[in-house]
Amino acid sequence: MVQVNGNYLKLKAGYLFPEIGRRVKAFSTAHPDAPLIRLGIGDVTEPLPQACRDAMKIAIDAMGTAEGFHGYGPEQGYAWLREAIATHDFQSRGCAISADEIFVSDGSKCDSSNILDILGEGNRIAVTDPVYPVYVDSNVMAGRTGQAGDEGRYAGLSYLPISADNGFTAEIPSEPVDLIYLCFPNNPTGAVATKKQLTAWVDYARKNGALILFDAAYEAFIQDPELPHSIYEIDGARDCAIEFRSFSKNAGFTGTRCAFTVVPKGLKGKAANAEDVELWGLWNRRQSTKFNGVSYIIQRGAEAVYSAAGQQEVKGLVSFYMENASIIRKQLSSAGLTVYGGEHAPYVWIKTPDGMDSWGFFDHLLNNANVVGTPGSGFGAAGEGYFRLSAFNSRANVDDAMARIQAL
Amino acid sequence: MVQVNGNYLKLKAGYLFPEIGRRVKAFSTAHPDAPLIRLGIGDVTEPLPQACRDAMKIAIDAMGTAEGFHGYGPEQGYAWLREAIATHDFQSRGCAISADEIFVSDGSKCDSSNILDILGEGNRIAVTDPVYPVYVDSNVMAGRTGQAGDEGRYAGLSYLPISADNGFTAEIPSEPVDLIYLCFPNNPTGAVATKKQLTAWVDYARKNGALILFDAAYEAFIQDPELPHSIYEIDGARDCAIEFRSFSKNAGFTGTRCAFTVVPKGLKGKAANAEDVELWGLWNRRQSTKFNGVSYIIQRGAEAVYSAAGQQEVKGLVSFYMENASIIRKQLSSAGLTVYGGEHAPYVWIKTPDGMDSWGFFDHLLNNANVVGTPGSGFGAAGEGYFRLSAFNSRANVDDAMARIQAL
Predict the structure, then answer these.
(1) Angle of the A50-63 helix axis to the A296-303 helix axis, nearest 10
(2) Pairing relationship of beta strands B268-270 and B259-262 according to DSSP bridges
(3) Phi-psi category of B76—alpha, beta or left, where left has phi over 0 and alpha has psi -120 to 50?
């Protein structure tokens, strides 16, 4: 009989967002008139930039003509988009990343999980705790872990705690690891890494022949010009890092879908026969075989992000959400809560008060303020006692939510 | 040091379409004025339906408003699109497929390779020969095969020859297999399967607990109302088959990107611990974790395929390409060539003349008629001595290419 991939059976049933959905639904059923405000999931709310909409409409008109019709495009993305990305996001910041090292995709979630396709099964893998659940779950599904233990931690993964004690940037592991997932600005804690901190990671990776999977989906929210937006701003990172980027959060593309991954040429891993193999070629083959590229229409929309008008609009969106974050920080602090993050990231990470646990605080806010957030423990054992609020919402909702929490 | 997936190193370097590209480039460099006509790759050429373009523009306008903005959508696709698919493509033909068994995606190439994620490593796998290369390569990359032998066949795969001798529908395997890739109407041979033939496969699969991966990307080209468009028109197929569908070829979405996969509830596989596991839940978890859904704008475009205007336009596109196929069949026959397919599929499968091998005929057409096709041997050892021409092109190009071949 056909066999299934039994690794899926190791996944914990109580995945974070479905459990939130379940509790919210139960509450709404009991209180159908309660005016819920959702600051849980990190989904943007503001309209798509005009520049992107205009560009997509032009692309659609072209698709209606014999001359302007586009069929299959390059699986790696169109050259004009890859060039725009390389120039604006990397070369402008002194990173020697070329257009052919950019792979356009339909999402960072896809890329950060699909990347395991080209990596071996014997790698020792490190994730931070708390962590974006997709890094962990994709490893479980690919058979790179053992079973989950009592705290929900999977055997075979190295968990690097991040907490107030270490300024929310994980410490360099004492045991050698081969693969390290890092996300800065961080989801869920809203922490950001300095050049010095990233340099320590790059030095560690180069010394140990490790690969850093660097998720920079939130780089646009960095306010301090001294902070690095890309791992490639660190000397030596081309030899040890792959970077994931997205248009989801800067340009509001969560429902429009476009992202990209940077795989530097010359970056190598080891085959079982001890041969050095370039990861660029493997990823190129993976994408060519298992992916058909992003819609021409959507790629034209993404290209418009780099136009003068697009850049202006993206700047406006980022400022708007960061003002929300600032309001959340200020109001929660004034309500007596201890808050972290929210200065270079659209997430505010709250220490739960009075020794409440994360789900206890979730229920407290849901029941008494009708505000939905995300329990820190859902992102990992070390997130227990924390809580995440997202700055992605309308100003009216943010103001209203904060007033309700103030009034508790 | 970080380890790579060494299975990629088993892949043959000379992948079909890059090799075609290399030869065409060399020819064009030597003959820069030669008026090439490309009937090689199966890519559509006619403008996108007006109904789809209109719907996408409305969606873009909505994305520019606070009320109409769409962020993250359901990973499985929007309910309105899944409902339209279930009603029009399945229930209208008597297939008991419900909307929640439809998973909208950005491509059948992705789905037909990603499906291996949820299947075990010990399955005995059968593919036809010739075959769409992605089925084979995705298995190689996932470590489900051994090395390639002299004929390019990979150890560990069962190859089921399809040729003129068996009417281009593979014979039921004599040895038991667990996983069978079938594609009808067939790429590359243009053959189609009857209800009787598919019933034999379904009976075999049910008897052996095997899973059929049925690729119906070309179903819209079927002309005979008696022929099945879906495997689910066969009794019992819900218990043994997953079906892949696409908007690429019927509605011209190769550059727009939308497809879907049907996973019936109740369809089961076996875990290593002998437990029966529903594939629907595994695929749902796979898509939720590793995929973010298709762009809202594109899904609105796909939905418009099912409007009255959209159906009319799709019918026009299919008729247009099938007229091309008919011209190709007629002209080649009159030129003395033996042709197959092209009656219910946009591909014509040609027996190479005078004992020429597939690449020999490729070079012959390229050099003497400046027409680019696809060597049958590129699709598998049993494709040697055959050649594929695609009906996807303008009428002028098809007429011109046929006139040139006639004149040889």
Answers:
(1) 150
(2) unpaired
(3) alpha
Torsion of CA B85, B86, B87, B90, to 10 degrees: 100
- Inter-axis angle of helices B296-303 and B50-63, nearest 10: 150
Residue of chain A with shortest Cα separation from B284: A8
List of chain B residues whose C-beta atoms are within 8 Å of the C-beta of residue A290: 109-110, 113-114, 134, 138, 141
- Average pLDDT on A318-335 reads 98
pLDDT of B61 reads: 98
pLDDT at B41 over 90: no
Instruction: Give per-residue pLDDT as tens, B99-130.
Output: 999 999 999 999 999 999 999 999 999 999 99
Nearest to A290 among B69, B138, B270 (CB): B138
- Which 183-222 residues of chain B touch chain A by CB within 8 A? 208-211
> Which domain-ending residue is among A280, A306, A332?
A306
Q: Would you place residue A150 in the very low, low, confident or very high pLDDT band (cuts 50, 70, 90)?
A: confident
The confidence band for B325, taking pLDDT boundaries of 50, 70 and 90, is: very high
Same domain (yes/no): B125, B209: yes
CB A350 within 8 A of CB A387: yes
Number of domains comprising chain A? 2
Write phi, then psi, for B77 (nearest 5 degrees): 105, 160
Nearest to A45 among B11, B71, B275 (CB): B71
Note whether B66 and B117 are same-domain residues.
yes
Query: In this structure, are A236 and A332 located in the same domain?
Result: no
Domain boundary among B306, B332, B359: B306
CB within 8 Å of chain A, chain B residues 153-182: 178-179
pLDDT digit string, tens, across residues A7-63: 999 998 667 887 898 999 999 999 999 999 999 988 999 999 999 999 999 999 999
Select from B138, B269, B285 the Cβ nearest to the Cβ of A3: B269
CB contact under 8 A, B255 and A69: yes
A204 shares its domain with A281? yes
- Residues A271, A205: one domain? yes
- Determine whether the interchain pair A47/B65 forms a contact, defined as Cβ–Cβ distance below 8 Å: yes
Residue B9 within a domain: no
Tell whether B6 is covered by a domain: no
CB–CB contacts below 8 A, A to B: 269
Domain membership flag for residue B166: yes
Which domain covers residue B136, as residue numbers? Answer: 53-306
The answer to whether residues A233 and A283 belong to one domain is yes
Please tell me if residue A56 touches chain B, with a CB cutoff of 8 Å: yes
pLDDT digits (tens, 9 = 90+) for A52-76: 999 999 999 999 999 999 999 999 9
Give the residue from B8, B116, B367 showing the smallest Cα distance to A142: B116
- The CATH number linked to A337 is 3.90.1150.10
Q: Are residues B268 and B195 in the same domain?
A: yes
Residue B8 is assigned to a structural domain of this protein: no
> Is A396 within 8 Å of chain B by CB?
no
The ipTM value here is: 0.97
Lowest mean pLDDT among A389-393, B16-20, B177-181: B16-20
Instruction: Identify all chain B residues contacting A126, using CB atoms and an 8 Å cutoff.
Output: none
Q: Please report, for the domain that includes residue B105, its CATH number.
A: 3.40.640.10
A281 and A143 in a common domain: yes
pLDDT of B17: 80
Alpha carbon distance B387, B253 (integer Å)? 25
Structure tokens at B133: 């290369």
Query: A72 and B254: CB-CB below 8 Å?
Result: yes
